[in-house]
Specification:
The protein is of the alpha+beta class and 137 residues long. Helix content is 51%, strand content 17%. The protein contains 3 helices and 4 strands; from the N terminus they run αβαβββα. The protein is elongated. The protein starts with a helix and ends with a helix.
């Protein structure tokens, strides 16, 4: 039965990590055209995952995941020439946030699919536990 609880833990860690990723992508999409109070363009946020590595658990194929950090992207800002824009510099160039809508939507779809896969694994483990309990009755 302990194996089932570890399977629940692994699936839950994956669902939690992907939920954080979906929230981060949603923040990026919401701030697609936003600027900070300092006037600097919004920087895309990125989620960094890390495997919870334990040699004993690796031998059993049990490697949960955790969110190590949420960091600002170091990708360059988009720059366009628009001298009439209120945020244009003295040369007429405007720095825009480094959020790419297409990439964010692809990342959101990937996060949703990963979340669903972890949820399916969780539900299958739950079904196995229920069937085991039924056999014991």
């Amino acid at each position: 039965m302990n194996d089932l609880f570890r399977a629940f833990e692994i699936s839950a860690s994956g669902m939690y990590a992907q939920r954080i990723r979906m929230n981060t992508v949603a923040s990026n999409l919401a701030n697609y055209e936003a600027y900070k109070q300092t006037g600097e363009p919004f920087r895309k946020l990125e989620v960094v995952f890390q495997a919870i590595y334990d040699p004993e658990r690796v031998k059993r194929g049990e490697i949960p995941v955790m969110v190590k950090a949420i960091r600002e992207s170091d990708a360059p800002f988009k720059v366009i020439f628009d001298p009439d824009h209120p945020r244009a510099d003295e040369n007429g160039y405007v720095r825009l946030p480094n959020v790419d809508l297409v990439r964010e939507m692809a990342d959101m779809i990937s996060a949703i699919r990963s979340y669903e896969a972890n949820l399916n694994a969780f539900n299958m483990t739950k079904e196995m536990a229920n069937r085991t309990i039924e056999l014991w009755r």
